[in-house]
Amino acid sequence: MGNSGSRTELQHQLRRLLEQQGTAIKSSTAQQFLDIINTASPWFLSGGGLNIPDWDQVKRDLQKQLHKQGPDAFPIETFWLWRLVNDALWSEKVRIKAELGAARGVWQEVQEEETRRSLSNGPLSDRPSPLPPEKDWEDRGGPIPDSEEESEDEEGILRQEIKDLRRRIKELETVENAAPPVVPSTPPLQPPAYAAWEGHIPAPEEAVEGMGPTEGVRFCPLVMPVMEVPDPDNPGQVIRQHQALPFKEVKAMKEAVCSYGPQEPFTLTVFESFAALDLTPSDWQQLCRAVLMGGDYLLWKGEYYEECLCIAWHNANAGQAHRNLDMLQGTGAYNTLQAQIAYDPGVYAQIASAASRAWKALPNKAAGEHLSKVLQGPSEPFADFVDSLIQLAGKIFGDVNTDMPVIQQLAY
What we know:
Largest sheet: 2 strands, antiparallel
CATH topology of the domain at 5-128: DNA polymerase, domain 1
GO biological process, one term: viral process
Domain Beta-retroviral matrix protein: 12-89
Number of strands: 2
Strand content: under 5%
Radius of gyration: 27 Å
GO molecular function: structural molecule activity
Structural class: mainly alpha
Distance between the termini: 48 Å
Region (Disordered): 108-157
Order of helices and strands: HHHHHHHHEEHHHHHHHHH
Helix content: 55-70%
Organism: Erinaceus europaeus (Western European hedgehog)
């Protein structure tokens, strides 16, 4: 993102904002976090804002980059910092609101600086989408020109960009209207590089004894720990491999559980980073056994069994009886690692869903209060009373949206 004065001040404001929430970070960490956001969401620097909708879109952009590039796309603490800023956006504390207002002011300066740079020095492809010359300069979010000469220069740039865009549109229309390529009537001599997925999962015996490059393997963007790599013995084909979870990430998850509890937003953010990966049933069980205290792990294991049983029942009704309880749990005929890495990619998504639901069903021991005991004070505004209910429900249930009917009943 560069090291201009405005961007340095933005890093400073980010550190002050997090310090108000009890988290201190280094300047290098703040700069790295802003650089990652600028890479994943380049629109955010020039046209975004420090508000909840735009910040939620930044999270979705980060998740897309994580799926495309794998777990090494950015440090794991990126989602932690995102969550802390998100908590600040939702916070009602006066000090946090004051720091957030200062950060927004610096953010506007950075946007104006970026707009000036794009219009004066940036290449055509890096500039924001042009607007007609007759639009107000305030609508563009940029500075008002200081003289008529600057206005004429900017107007000339915009007109040139409009001409270039019209020319590119005509070229695209010409390509689109061109005759489609002729498809040969005879079948190709060489088979396709990757076998098409037929919706069939190989039996465990097939996976163990001799899973060929086209048996039960589909070329898809699987990410660690289950990965698809080129087959060195068969060029153009792929094989599946398993890579263990990094110790540093498991340790970070363990520290989050011990410091904050399994249901705190900070811990749930770390857990979501694992849910975005393709973990086998054995991976989930080893991870939860390592990070949860004795009783909590047994509770998670029981909830995980119930969730897998429910998913297996729905699979059977949908005509996918082969996605049974043993496959989802990694038991019986699917208790080996070689069998579990041969699953359909859709099965990993179902396993992650079951593991996430089981985790969110764990009791929140840190929440010692009950919603029914929260009463509105004689002079307390109704909005503050409802906010207290929502914050406590977030600590107890984790996902407030699913329990909103209960909150509404208590509030009214």
